[in-house]
Amino acid sequence: MGEYRDTSRGRDGTAGVIGSDAPAAQTLAAPTTDYALRPEIPIIMRPGARIQFGVEPERSMILPLSDGTPPGPVFSALLAAHRGSTLSEAFADSHDKLSPQFITALISDLHRAALVQKPPTRRRITLIGRDSLRTGLLKELRRTGCGSWTKAMSPTRNATLKISQSTPEDIGLAVVTGMEVPSMPLVRALFHRGIEHLHTHFRDGALILGPLVQPGQGPCSMCFEAYRRDRDPVRALIALQLRTFTPVTAPEWLNTAVPLLVGQLRRPDLSDLCATEVRIDLESLDITRTTVAPHPQCPVCGHGNSQMQFM
Q1: Same domain, 104 and 131
Q2: Domain that holds residue 72
Q3: Distance from C-alpha of 83 to C-alpha of 248, rounded to nearest angstrom
Q4: What CA–CA distance (Å, rounded) separates 19 from 1?
């Protein structure tokens, strides 16, 4: 059997191949096989026993199979992984037709080419907010089954009390919606109980996503607010007014934002949202990212003797 060695593409996007008589030292280590292929990237057969990943040839990876490698079993297994089976499941029935070295090398190269993804994550989610974003997320998470357990609550004193008496396992990921200026007691309870939480809301019609705050790690959402107060001497007065403001948006933008957020919540790893606030203009599709360090005077994750006053 021929062995596929490398997905480092040349100028034409074609991956290299080696023959079955290649030295054993070139065989790659066994890769992780509990991944599936990314469903948004189609798999296409090309003449000459070549398999193309993607629509545009100049942007796609093209896998040329060496002589002696039957394209049928390779293509069938890749299609199964494209439909959601893990790579180990997809190639389980191919070992009598494809060599283990070929399968191992191919799967490793698919990883390097970023053509694989973990199955969507189903996580325990608690929604905290009183806006239409919370309502839309609750409905969509339950409809799609993306949350293994989903509950919604309003950011009241009772909710803060419940958070302060809960464990991270009870809450899962807390998604805080509709708060331009977060509730200090709520944020403090989430942080000091070690509960991972993600902030999202609308601001002037744009969707704000982040920051994600992981257990015991700053910066938190109040760090962002502290930096705003550093820049604007009257921010405290503005924040007092914004605290009671419930952000709204047009129905069509809400219907755009909710699936986008659900897609984010399905990602296995959200850590790229730590310390980051992403602003998505749903009309122009402009995206900007703001990243900060923990604020030394943050009353939640900063020094305990902070003199900065937050109401």
Answers
A1: no
A2: 3-117
A3: 38
A4: 8
pLDDT band at 303 (very low <50, low <70, confident <90, very high): low
Q: Cα separations (Å) of 178 from 162, 217, 249?
A: 19, 23, 11
Please check whether residue 256 lies inside any domain of the structure. yes
Split at pLDDT 50, 70, 90, the class of 58 is: confident
One-letter amino acid of 9: R
Give the CB-side neighbour count of residue 27, counting CA atoms within 13 A. Answer: 14
- What's the whole-number mean pLDDT along residues 107-112? 90
User: What token pair was written down for 255?
Assistant: 């219907």
Give the chain as a 3 state SS string: CCEEEECCCCCCCECEEECCCCCHHHCCCCCCCCCEECCCCCEEEECCCEEEECCCCCCCEEEECCCCCCHHHHHHHHHHHHCCCCHHHHCHHHCCCCCHHHHHHHHHHHHHCCCEECCCCCEEEEEECCCHHHHHHHHHHHHHCCEEEEEEECCCHHHHHHHHCCCHHHHCEEEEECCCCCCHHHHHHHHHCCCCEEEEEEECCEEEEEEEECCCCCCCHHHHHHHHHHHCCCHHHHHHHHCCCCCCCCHHHHHHHHHHHHHHHCCCCCHHHECEEEEECCCCCCEEEEECCCCCCCCCCCCCCCCCCCC
pLDDT, one tens digit per residue, over 258-279 is 999 999 998 888 999 999 999 9
CA triple 41-45-50, angle to 5 deg? 105
The radius of gyration of the chain from alpha carbons, rounded to an integer in Å, stands at 24
For the stretch 187-232, pLDDT in tens is: 999 999 999 999 999 999 999 999 999 998 989 999 999 999 999 9
Same domain? 82 vs 183: no
Q: What is the pTM of this model?
A: 0.74
The verdict on 106 and 242 lying in the same domain is: no
